[in-house]
Design a protein that fits this description.
It is built from 16 helices and 21 strands. It is of the alpha+beta class. The chain has a 7-stranded mixed beta sheet, with helices on both faces. A 6-stranded mixed beta sheet has the order 14-18-13-17-15-16. β6 and β7 form a beta hairpin. The longest helix has 18 residues. It is globular and about 65 Å long.
């Protein structure tokens, strides 16, 4: 065949395959992920990547029910102190090593004992692991733990290859090896994360893209423009201010789900030298900041009314939301009085670090303006999100505008942030009474007992305010109109099973 005929044949082949499935799915993220190690990481966008990369022991439904993933069935002992799981016998890790009970035991050990692990407090109830067979395992617990299944539906339940993890140590995140439908291919920081389909996945037929590319694009307007131009196929966290524009575009479909989490301002209370200042030492200043802001005005001005004003870790649609703590009305005079009582009648400065993305910056500019009327002079320091998290962990901050995507069990929204040994307690807030109440809620399986414990803890935290909660968001996704099979979940994750994109 001559070159001309080959070219013509290729063109004709292309014409006949219009409507075929796209080989690559391109997803625009609001920021870049941090380290791709389930034990060390903490970013929301990292969890989006993990959803395709790292299977968990269990998953959730859109209605927040716990369902099998790598574990096929499970049961608790009558006293709640033992959890027995049966595991899939057809799963392997991306390096070809088998997934089995020994691998699960190694993962639990790593999560609990790796020095840099952030999963320690999430799995603290597990005191021992017993391999009962090649695909059966038992967890021994210090006490009944109502939160454990929800933890195993998240990063604490993500299984990595013990062989790869042992070889890489703390550098595992540079080339993660898990057992999900897609395996790691490459990463260029601040540019892209590329996964490719794993041919030996037990449900490979349910996944229809050869590769998935995650592209960090912090500017919401630019993200939407990339979707409209066809440079990406979907974007997560479409800005509420762009919702009308996206819905008016025939080439775009919009999906949404109410989130499980919150957004707020975390104050450094005792995390190193930067916590030893009036903001960290005097709760009256934190209370003054709370009174200085108008949460409902923030919702209207920044989010076009699409979100919900908030002042606690649970959203208003959650059964764990406490009506005992109504969202406070703005009271500038009360804020000024608290500042004066604390010895700052002439005002006080506060430095707040903010992710370098559109919405957080807009939010903090509004908060900055409101706080100024009370005498709180906020300076805004914009940082790339992974850098912000690293500085927050290290205590190199005074206050940080940050949120949490939320978890199925309420424990996931409060325990690790507010207990003395909590894995993500970056403010280093510590109160033995709060520890006791939140530990009690974690151990009880009685809903009323848990609710009473959370409400009592909230009464203390509402007074001491290591986190000034501001609002609860709604997840909004925008997708190319050719994509089918996407299901919105309240956890904000993008699950690719069954998703397709028609080309042409």
């Amino acid at each position: 065949m001559t070159l001309t005929k080959m070219t013509l044949a290729a063109a004709l082949l292309g014409a006949t395959t219009l409507g075929a499935q796209a080989a690559d799915l391109r997803i625009a993220l609001q920021s870049d992920a941090d380290v791709l190690d389930p034990d060390q990481s903490r970013t929301f966008v990292g969890r989006i990547v993990y959803t395709s990369l790292c299977d968990k022991l269990v998953d959730i439904t859109p209605d927040l029910e716990i369902i099998p993933q790598l574990a096929t069935e499970w049961s608790f002992s009558e006293d709640g102190k033992q959890l027995t799981m049966k595991l899939r016998d057809d799963a392997v890790f991306h390096d070809g090593t088998p997934f089995n009970a020994e691998a699960v035991a190694a993962n639990i050990d790593r999560s609990q004992n790796l020095e840099t692990s952030r999963r320690k407090s999430e799995l603290s109830s597990i005191t021992g692991v017993e391999v009962l067979g090649n695909h059966e395992i038992r967890f021994d617990l210090a006490d009944a733990d109502a939160t454990l299944m929800a933890q195993l539906a998240d990063r604490a339940g993500m299984m990595v290859s013990p062989t790869a993890a042992e070889a890489a140590g703390d550098d595992f995140g540079l080339a993660p090896v898990c057992s999900g439908p897609y395996q790691f291919k490459e990463r260029v920081a601040q540019d892209r994360i590329v996964l490719e389909k794993f041919a030996d996945y037990y449900n490979a037929d349910g996944y229809h893209f050869d590769t998935v590319t995650y592209l960090p694009i912090p500017d919401t307007t630019v993200r939407l423009a990339n979707l409209q131009s066809g440079d990406v196929d979907m974007i997560e966290r479409l800005a509420a201010t762009d919702l009308a524009q996206a819905e008016a575009d025939d080439g775009i479909q919009v999906e949404s789900a109410v989130s499980l989490g919150y957004q707020g301002i975390t104050i450094n209370v005792a995390n190193g030298d930067k916590g030893d200042n009036p903001w960290g030492n005097d709760k009256r200043l934190r209370q003054a900041l709370s009174y200085a802001v108008d949460r409902e005005a923030i919702n209207q001005v920044v989010f076009n009314g699409a979100f919900a004003a908030g002042n606690q870790p649970f959203p208003p649609n959650s059964p764990w939301y406490s009506t005992d703590f109504a969202v406070p009305e703005r009271d500038v005079e009360k804020a000024k009085a608290l500042l004066a009582e604390a010895g700052f009648a002439d005002g006080i400065d506060l430095e707040v670090q903010v992710p370098n993305t559109t919405i957080p910056l807009q939010l903090m500019q509004v908060v900055q303006s409101m706080a100024a009327e009370a005498g709180i002079n906020i300076s805004i320091t914009s940082k790339e999100f992974a850098t912000l998290l690293a500085d927050q962990s290290a205590g190199d901050y005074q206050a940080s505008q940050i949120g949490w995507s939320g978890r199925v069990d309420p424990d996931g929204n409060i325990h690790q942030f507010m207990t003395t040994e909590g894995g993500i307690n970056d403010s280093k807030y510590s109160n033995p009474e709060v520890d006791e109440l939140l530990d009690k809620a974690r151990k009880s399986t009685d809903q009323d007992t848990r609710r009473e414990s959370y409400t009592a803890a909230r009464a203390i935290l509402n007074d001491e305010m290591p986190i000034v909660y501001l609002y609860h968001e709604t997840w909004i996704w925008a997708l190319d109109s050719g994509i089918t099979g996407f299901t919105p979940y309240p956890d904000g994750m993008i699950r690719l099973e069954g998703m397709k994109k028609e080309e042409g």
